[in-house]
Amino acid sequence: MLLADLAGTAVFAIEGAVSAMRAGLDLLGVMVIAFIVALGGGVTRDLLIGATPPNAIRDWRYPVLAFAMGLLAFVFHTQVLNLSESLLTLLDTAGLALFAIAGAQKALNFGISPFVSMLMGTITGVGGGVIRDIVLARIPMVLQADLYASSAFSGAAVLIIARRLGVPPVTAALLAAAACIALRLASVTWGWQLPRITV
Amino acid sequence: MLLADLAGTAVFAIEGAVSAMRAGLDLLGVMVIAFIVALGGGVTRDLLIGATPPNAIRDWRYPVLAFAMGLLAFVFHTQVLNLSESLLTLLDTAGLALFAIAGAQKALNFGISPFVSMLMGTITGVGGGVIRDIVLARIPMVLQADLYASSAFSGAAVLIIARRLGVPPVTAALLAAAACIALRLASVTWGWQLPRITV
Amino acid sequence: MLLADLAGTAVFAIEGAVSAMRAGLDLLGVMVIAFIVALGGGVTRDLLIGATPPNAIRDWRYPVLAFAMGLLAFVFHTQVLNLSESLLTLLDTAGLALFAIAGAQKALNFGISPFVSMLMGTITGVGGGVIRDIVLARIPMVLQADLYASSAFSGAAVLIIARRLGVPPVTAALLAAAACIALRLASVTWGWQLPRITV
């Protein structure tokens, strides 16, 4: 579990570093954005559910890992910026599922109601990217495009509904991951979008 | 009291949905911005005064109501986008007064000093709109235009001063609402502005 | 100590007011940005380390001081906007060193690990300016230019390493301030920059 969590942190940190380098930030900016994308969602969830200090502050391994991945991505930027889009999407989708499920479960453990725990799982998955977009002064991508946040919500919702129905934890987590990953990959593959009003 | 609070939440959620539809966001974005405008101020206040988890996280009725109003505003967008500006201003002013007063009182109940409680009331009233503007990557309207935040502050200040002078709670709240609403409507009607330096 | 902290708050509030007046905000906006720049870093640190309510909420003297400096800077805007850049840089550097050191020490006192305490010191020093930039819808300056955040981190790191090596508190703080101030002034004087990838 810890290993999976650290793997998700590393993947999100690399993605953050890529977006920071594309935005022309310096080495510090790259490391800070790597930290934000990797840990911002979890920190937000922990502040909201009252789990303070947040895990990423309490356990130094998370920030050290995020900064180290940011630094590595900066040093090996030629290789990192040449990673194929489909590989990045796959890794990101795995990280999204993991964060959404772990986040929903943690909220539930803190006595948060089922529906709000689904929201907390979603925030864990997408919060880091949202804060990154806010810091880079652009409208968060997840509010505008494809089913990214919806996939995170689906994973969190399947987990919580399955747990309520008495499904054992590991099976529930696998079902939830399947739901999140399937919806995300299907929406990317076929270009699914949520409806939008034109005014 | 609870009913008034839920009514204020519903009004702010609809306003949030309107601004999100005007910004071209998809259904998810509309629901998220409805949530932010309705509950962002109260969540910020609760985090700052140490009332964690914030009320909107602890009590699932608030997020469900905000999302439901966002969804309804999206479905009935033709009607909602045609609501008259003056009706929206009236509803918004009522919500602002309510949130500012309830927020100041809650801060006071948590042992926060009178002056800072006035600030917490102001944040409860205007915080959701400020976070919305930040997420939509624009300079918060309340820092630039008319006496919106000043009206919220007036309401919170009148409440706290009246309570200090021994005025009973309900009378204090009515006086405070009158102050907030009068200042807001007067400033809209006569175009009052705060001074500004031209550099 | 309290006096130094209040002096740092006043300096940062004036800087905030200057940037808000340059951005064309009204009196309220100037006071709010003064508050944010002066107290935003400390509030963020306190929320993250679980010291709630944050000091700036608990102790009314801090917000009153920040608002008063914002108001004074607005009233005496001719004089304030004519302060020389080098004087402002000196004052700002002193405030940065003070906030970074005090913030790192406070995190350590709350049982946060040494490395994360260095981060908390850095956030205390630069957080207010970052939030200001986010509110004004621009990419935070510290992610793009010179060694501002790096200087804050150096100060926090020297403090914590010195304390670990058994250096007495006052000596450690003086060493840390010297490190932060020297790095900041050297980077401004000689135009030092962190490396950056061009993509």
Which descriptor suits the 3D outline of chain A? globular
The radius of gyration over CA of chain A amounts to 16 Å
Give me the strand/helix succession of chain A.
Answer: HHHHHHHHH
Please report which band the strand proportion of chain A falls in: under 5%, 5-15%, 15-25%, 25-35%, 35-45% or over 45%.
under 5%
For the largest beta-sheet of chain A, the strand count, sense and barrel status come to: none
Instruction: Determine the fraction of residues in helical runs of chain A and give it as a percent range.
Output: over 70%
By oligomeric state, this entry counts as homotrimer
Give the count of structural domains of chain A. Answer: 1
Largest interface: A-B, 32 and 30 residues
**Structural classification of chain A:** mainly alpha
Intertermini distance of chain A: 46 Å
Number of helices, counting only DSSP H or I runs of 4 residues or more of chain A:
9
Strand count of chain A: 0
Query: What is the average per-residue confidence, as pLDDT of chain A, rounded to a whole number?
Result: 95
- Uncertain stretches of chain A: none
